[in-house]
Amino acid sequence: MPDDPVETPIQKALRLKKAAIAAKPKPPRGGKFQRQQAAAAHSSSKSKPWMSR
């Protein structure tokens, strides 16, 4: 597929873009890391005690 003569420039660009995205390091999924991220997203409510019931 890399030297496919039927591949258009747009198809080539899309393939290269997908390859670049796939090559990037991804954050770990699940476990402690995910719980920390969820806790960080909700931590702003702790500074507003009047918002809790």
Class per helix and strand makeup: mainly alpha
Number of strands: 0
Mean pLDDT: 78
**How far is it from the N-terminal to the C-terminal residue, by CA?**
60 Å
Bulk shape: elongated
Summed up, the helix count is 2
The percent range for strand residues is: under 5%
Helix content range: 40-55%
Poorly predicted spans: none
The biggest beta sheet is recorded as: none
The SSE string, one letter per element, is HH
Rounded to an integer in angstroms, the radius of gyration calculated over CA atoms is 22 Å
Spell out the blueprint of helices and strands.
Blueprint: H1 9-23, H2 31-42
Task: Give an account of the 3D structure.
This protein has two helices and no strands. The protein has 53 residues and is an all-alpha fold. The longest helix is centred in the first third of the chain and has 15 residues, at 9-23. It starts with 8 loop residues before the first helix and ends in an 11-residue tail after the last helix.
Tell me briefly what this model is.
The chain has 53 residues and is an all-alpha fold. It has helices at 9-23, 31-42. The longest helix has 15 residues, at 9-23.
What features would you highlight for this structure?
about 50% helix; mainly alpha; 2 helices; about 0% strand; about 55 residues
